[in-house]
Write a structure and sequence with these properties.
By secondary structure, this protein is α/β, with parallel strands linked by helices. 30% of the residues lie in helices and 19% in strands. The protein has 5 helices and 8 strands; from the N terminus they run ββαβαβαββαβαβ. The chain has a 6-stranded parallel β-sheet, covered by helices on one side. A two-stranded antiparallel sheet has the order 2-6. The chain is globular.
Length: 206
């Protein structure tokens, strides 16, 4: 079973075609005191069949925003809730990686099975919340994670302004990872992208 957990709906980035609903900027979060009962609710299901496995996908917003202490507590609550069945429980993370530093890498290498992330070479499409660049921080975080042995999968959203940059995109991602672990998804009208604010990026309006 795969369970998607919205650690928070807040985000420190601003992606023009974000698939989150516009109301997601409210910044609600999964409270620390709710972690234990949430994990405990899945223990009977896991115990019912020794072949069952459980995967939690930490999502957002930007799921790392609640902080390292929050996730350390999540790891402790999981260990307590699942006990000797913990080897059948895994965690994955979907993150923009802007907060990743040595402390996060050290924790994540023992907590997550893999990380998923997105990136865009086209200027102005993906930025920090205040409009700043993210490229250098993102590349550094991906490099840190992979050097620590954490698998990182990359998604690229294809949009109208990226089509003329096909060669640039190929060389960038090839240099980032010679094994080519990149998934290309077309921009689709969901969340912010469904409001008309991204018509200049839409593949439908080429």
């Amino acid at each position: 079973m795969q369970v998607i957990l919205k650690a928070t709906t807040a985000c420190n980035a601003s992606c023009r075609y974000c698939s989150a609903v516009p109301e997601a900027a409210s910044g609600s979060r999964l409270r620390e005191e709710d972690l234990a009962p949430l994990f405990e609710a899945f223990r009977p299901w896991l115990d019912a069949d020794p072949a069952r496995k459980l995967s939690f996908v930490w999502h957002g917003g930007e799921p790392l925003l609640p902080g390292l202490g929050y996730f350390r507590r999540a790891a402790e609550e999981q260990a307590q809730a699942f006990g000797d069945a913990s080897d059948r429980v895994s965690n994955r993370l979907q993150s923009n990686l802007l907060l990743v530093d040595d402390g996060w890498v050290e924790f994540l290498r023992g907590f997550v099975k893999s990380i998923g992330t997105s990136f865009d070479l086209v200027e102005g499409v993906r930025t920090t919340r205040t409009g700043g660049p993210i490229a250098a921080r993102w590349v550094d975080a991906v490099t840190r994670c992979r050097e620590a042995g954490i698998p990182v999968g990359v998604v690229y959203v294809i949009h109208k302004r990226s089509l003329p940059r096909a060669a640039d995109l190929y060389h960038f991602f090839r240099n980032l990872d010679e094994r080519g672990r990149v998934r290309f998804n077309p921009l689709y009208p969901e969340g912010r992208a469904a409001t008309g604010a991204t018509d200049d990026l839409s593949l439908i309006h080429i």
